[in-house]
């Protein structure tokens, strides 16, 4: 496929908009659609094109990318008379960068093939910063030949891009990613509450911890946010709550036991239930504070 592909980008949220802008910077002709039309105008200001509907966005696309919050949202934008499957041209690649249930991804891939499209489930990891910098990790499920054809597009938005198996595999790997990330943020939050209780210089403590086996990308990217109590969303707790539901449900279907995952899923759920769902997932720290009797955020 040529370097000057026409790309339709559906879903221009916290991560979708910078991803679409990076595709423009890489030389692709990008037409964007978002339920909130001002986001599509933001893309147009960056050199893309704003579409008034999904059908309009995908009409001439060689590659269609969807980046929406949850399984029902993906089903809504791909199905129906105005959706992707009914309006994209035959042979187009459909890359779903959303994070959804693996079983739904498999069903939608079958539906896409029936409509003459080539589906890839390619959920991403790296948050808003990774989307802006174009260094996302992308785990991709689908046919290897389709993955190979999609690589130039994926290289414009990501850095670590791996074909992990057939349709649904990308979503399964993403579920594992979200399990690890939430568990790490919870542990980091508990460590900071513990350190602060003893009056330790937390800046210095995280610096030395980051240089040892306790170091992680979570510590590097979320440690300062926790110390600063800056929970502006790069990835919202409400979405991580949704993702932990995917993890626990898929584990149950597979017959495997995730004791820590189940506990962390409940702790994430607690933050959403107490009104913190719009915060960054580093806001798990606030839940630890509450459990420890802090008066800062009751």
Q: Tags for this entry?
A:
298 residues, alpha/beta, nine-stranded mixed β-sheet, 53% helix
Task: Offer a concise description of the structure.
The chain is α/β, with parallel strands linked by helices and 298 residues long. The chain has 14 helices and 9 strands. Helix content is 53%, strand content 14%.
Assembly annotation: single chain
N-to-C span: 55 Å
> Count of DSSP helices?
14
Structural class: alpha/beta
What Rg do the Cα atoms give?
A: 20 Å
Number of strands: 9
| Unreliable spans | none
The residue fraction in helices comes out at: 40-55%
SSE string:
EHEHEHEHHEHEEHEHEHHHHHH
Task: Summarize the biggest pleated sheet.
Answer: 9 strands, mixed
Portion in strands: 5-15%
The geometry reads as globular
Q: Tell me, rounded to a whole number, the average pLDDT.
A: 96
Could you explain the architecture of this structure?
The chain is of the alpha/beta class and 298 residues long. Strands 1, 2, 3, 4, 5, 6, 7, 8 and 9 form a 9-stranded mixed sheet that branches. Helix 1 packs parallel to helix 7, helix 9 crosses helix 12 and helix 12 runs antiparallel to helix 13. The radius of gyration is 20 Å and the shape is globular. The N and C termini lie far apart (55 Å).
What is the topological layout?
Elements: E1 6-10, H1 16-25, E2 29-33, H2 37-45, E3 49-50, H3 54-58, E4 63-66, H4 71-78, H5 84-87, E5 93-96, H6 102-114, E6 118-121, E7 124-125, H7 127-133, E8 136-142, H8 144-155, E9 158-165, H9 169-197, H10 202-210, H11 217-228, H12 237-254, H13 259-273, H14 284-291
Parallel strand pairs: 1-2, 1-4, 2-3, 4-5, 5-6, 8-9
Antiparallel strand pairs: 6-8, 7-8
Helix pairs in contact: 1-7, 9-11, 9-12, 9-13, 9-14, 10-11, 12-13
């Amino acid at each position: 496929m040529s370097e000057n592909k026409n790309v339709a980008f559906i879903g221009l949220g916290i991560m979708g908009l910078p991803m679409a802008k990076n595709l423009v910077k890489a030389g692709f002709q990008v037409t964007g659609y978002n339920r909130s039309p001002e986001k599509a105008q933001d893309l147009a200001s960056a050199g893309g094109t704003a579409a008034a509907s999904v059908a309009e966005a995908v009409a001439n696309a060689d590659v269609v990318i969807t980046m929406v919050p949850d399984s029902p949202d993906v089903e809504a934008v791909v199905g129906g008379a105005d959706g992707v499957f009914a309006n994209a041209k035959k042979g187009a690649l459909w890359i779903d960068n959303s994070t959804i249930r693996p079983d739904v991804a498999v069903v939608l891939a079958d539906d896409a093939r029936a409509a003459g499209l080539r589906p890839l489930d390619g959920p991403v990891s790296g948050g808003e910063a990774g989307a802006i910098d174009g260094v996302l990790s992308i785990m991709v499920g689908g046919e290897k030949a389709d993955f190979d054809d999609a690589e130039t597009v994926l290289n414009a938005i990501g850095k670590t891009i791996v074909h992990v198996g057939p349709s649904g595999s990308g979503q399964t790997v993403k579920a594992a990613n979200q399990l690890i990330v939430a568990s790490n943020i919870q542990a980091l939050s508990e460590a900071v509450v513990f350190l602060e209780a003893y009056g330790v210089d937390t800046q210095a403590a995280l610096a030395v911890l980051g240089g040892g086996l306790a170091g992680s990308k979570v510590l590097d990217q979320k440690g300062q946010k926790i110390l600063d109590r800056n929970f502006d969303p790069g990835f919202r707790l409400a979405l991580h709550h949704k993702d932990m539901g995917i993890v626990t449900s898929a584990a149950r279907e597979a017959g495997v036991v995730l004791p820590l995952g189940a506990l962390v899923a409940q702790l994430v759920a607690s933050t959403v239930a107490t009104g913190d769902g719009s915060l960054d997932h580093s806001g798990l720290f606030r839940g630890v504070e509450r459990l420890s009797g802090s008066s800062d955020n009751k």
